[in-house]
Amino acid sequence: MAVNTDSPAVPAAIQPQLPAYGLQVVAFIGFLALSAAAWALASIPIILNSRGWFAAAANAPWMPPGWMFRSTWMALYAGVAVAAWLVWRRGAMVRGTLAGYAAQLLLNAAWPLTFFGLFPVFGTAALWAALAVICALAVSLAFLTLRFGPANAAAGLLVLPYLSWVVFSASLNLYAALHN
């Protein structure tokens, strides 16, 4: 009778170990702080110009009230921070994924600077430049959704409202560029 001398079966996919609890808390706070800093930085040109040229500008008929923008952006920044943290916990916040995450933060901070801050200097050209920035932001968010989703399904889903809001905001930007 033959004896089975094969080694025991090794699971095909071994779950990666999660970082220590304390490190997870620090990372979570760090992602939230990074998003809050990006939100605060992006708010500066909006605050400085919302009562100036923008108050007299032609805006799209579907433009929501200002308070909705502030609360929506805060929620979206918090959502992307949680998404990034979920991906980081899986050890997947590396290379292209990390670059995509950094790109969306930079592009999101660049858009209000371009749209609100540069209009007094460059006029309508700034609005067209801002449209290019927000379209690049939408592309970076689509990329991020595709990178986050396989690492953590909830993280991929958390980026979708952000992407939707950016596409909506791009429609407002386009209207402003065409009518100002």
Concise structural overview:
The chain has 180 residues and is mostly helical. The chain is 77% helix and 0% strand.
Summary keywords:
single chain; about 180 residues; mainly alpha; 7 helices; about 75% helix; elongated
Characterization of the model:
The radius of gyration is 21 Å and the shape is elongated. Helices cover 77% and strands 0% of the residues. It has 180 residues and is mostly helical. The chain contains 7 helices and no strands. Helix 6 packs antiparallel against helix 7. It has helices at 21-49, 53-56, 66-89, 95-117, 119-122, 124-151, 153-179. Residues 4-12 have low confidence and may be disordered.
The helix tally amounts to 7
- What would the principal axes of the Cα set say about the shape? elongated
What percentage of the residues does DSSP assign to strands (E)?
Answer: under 5%
Number of strands: 0
State mean pLDDT (0 to 100 scale): 90
Give the termini distance in whole angstroms.
88 Å
Low-confidence stretches: 4-12
Largest sheet: none
Order of helices and strands: HHHHHHH
Structural class by helix and strand composition: mainly alpha
Considering DSSP H and I runs of 4 or more, what fraction of the residues is helical? Answer: over 70%
Rg: 21 Å
Task: Give the SSE layout.
Layout: H1 21-49, H2 53-56, H3 66-89, H4 95-117, H5 119-122, H6 124-151, H7 153-179
Helix pairs in contact: 1-3, 1-4, 3-7, 4-6, 6-7
